[in-house]
Amino acid sequence: MDIGAHVGYYAIHAAKVVGPTGHVFAFEPVPSNLRRLEENAALNGFSNLTSVASAVGNRTGKATFRAVDVPGESGWGSLLLDPASNTKDLEVSVVSLDDFAEQHGVTRVDVLKLDVQGGEFDVLTGAGKILDAWHPTIVCEVTDVYWGSAQTTTAKDLFEYLAGREYEPWVIGTRGRLTRLDDAGSAPQNLLFRFRRD
Question: Whole-prediction pTM value?
Answer without folding.
Answer: 0.92
